[in-house]
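Hi X.,

You mentioned you wanted examples for the new student's onboarding notes, showing what a folding record looks like when two proteins sit in one file. Here is a clean example. The first protein comes first, with its sequence line followed by its structure tokens.
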Amino acid sequence: MRLCNWLMCSCLFICFTSVAREAPRILKIYHDSDYSNHHASALAMKMGLVTAFAEVNNQVQGYELQLIEKDNRGNSNRSFLHIRQYLNDPDALAVLGGLHSPPYIKYRKFINESGVLLLIPWAAGGPITRYPDAQNWVFRLSVDDSKAGYTLVEHAQQSLRCENIHLLLENTPWGKSNEKTMRTAMGDTPIAGVTWFNWNTQYASAKIIIRDIVTSDTDCIVFVGNAPEGKHFVNAMASLKNQDRLPIISHWGITGGAFYPAVKESLNNGLVLHFIQSCFSLRDYRHHTLAKEAVDLAKNQFPEQLVHPEQLAAPTGFIHSYDLGRLLLQGLGQITLSDDMKSNRAQLRAALEHLDGSVVGLLKTYQRPFSVWSTTNQDAHEALGQDDFCMAKYDLDGGVTLLPKGAKKVIGNEATSD
């Protein structure tokens, strides 16, 4: 009887051990993003990365790739909580950042000293990738505010013929980094004025601010802010008489939330609103083999959200995360994964700085997009450059259409050659 019990226990132990060995090992990618207040951008980024992973059947070296939603609600302290959770999770490989720059600027030192592999497909704050150490753990494939300000100012001056630019900036490290860049971009040309606003600025306050700007010596506004406040400023401008309205040239933060439905009527009534984007539009996906394959695969993953891909809200979130996912997979292909996650993170960080060959993405084909950071190589962890940034506008269906690059004279929402 004792022999039977011993044999039974042995068989059970072998069975359980076998099952444990066959259970898929997991690599988690934490997505620290504002799913509450800027759901459009969070969802677009999620869809892009998930689509890239689906191309390899969510598997790499026997590990299952999983994206884990972490809603920071636009709160830097919640982002910090997610970062600490990541560090204590033996299955967490990397963190995919979200829309907001402040948490990654505020906690940049902790992120790098703790070895948090942070991949940025949206947050544009200039300092994020420029931690002054060769062991830099933050990689970005997005708009970069150390360059974005030049694109915004150039468009205002050359395309809209603005001579007196007023800066309307959110009062955060993101807004302040943009002010610094745009002052440099303007050179000797004086700025007509700078107005700061806080998060949660409502329509009544926005209307007062807009009226004050319009009555000053200003012919256009360069805006840096997000969708919740942006919609109020746009609608406040649209409430003025046609002859009093000023064009608004915006950072892309407005595209990250439920913005277009709230301003549709204002735009349809002729208000000029242009905003920065990277230079690929989902309107063109049918004309590019990879883009069509990626969108078709994304439709299978998210059939309800991608009925009309051209109308996807926050499309650059999808584009950037998809391309970043492809770079991540290339890096994973250059290392040997183990159960030591700290080692995996370190190996992958090094691999991203030395990616082999070329990686085809939606925006472009990437050749060594990242390198070792140094004080003389400030853009080492920036996959995109000035030539990858364009200006865009909303069409009547809510989709985003790129404006022609170069000096154009813009009438209303249309660009024409001089």
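Then the second protein repeats the pattern, sequence line and then tokens:
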Amino acid sequence: MKGMDEERGAPVGRRIVLGMLGLGAAGVAVGSSLQRGVTRAFSPVNGIGDVLPAVGGFRFYSVVGTVRTPRDLRVQVDGLVGRPRGYSPAELAAMPQTRVRRDFQCVTGWRVPHVEWSGVALPDLLDAADVSPRARAVRFHSFDGTYTESLTLDQARRRDVLVATAMQGKPVSHDHGGPVRLFVAPMYGYKSLKWLGRIELTETVHPGYWENLGYDVDAWVGRSNGRDDAPT
């Protein structure tokens, strides 16, 4: 699955990816040599080799291949709001920051433990925008021009949903979806949209890129899959 954190390859159907979960667990249990062997065995078929969970770190994904950061990037907050505004990455980094430490869980089965993210809590940006009473959802657009995601307004108002500009104490790298990305702590990684360019308030939830390929709109991760540290 491209567009989450993180991989390359052709889109893979939901049933195939869910079927890979056991293979991912096996790779973690017996070591990287088996993982490499399974990857080689499946790589000719629909890019499946690219969706196998990596051992010991993130995988990198893009739904469009190479993504170039706009020279004058501003993350727009608009739609059903009274005060639309654009924010540069520097402006976002200068605002009061919220930190969240959580395991990053990919729906394909791999996980990176205790990743710390910092950024502006999404509720703070929504408050600044004066959200219309008509708004019931938030739609997120990547500046890659293709990748989108959505949350209900109630989900978006959680303090552990961040417009993130830092990861592990450093600016979010391009490969990790920087300079600004969404981080939705309680959900699987495909909800944490990379290369964030626009936050749009809408009347209804618009299924995102992966939901249109069969994935769940509400992608909650069980608490047993991650350490639920409170945001600070």
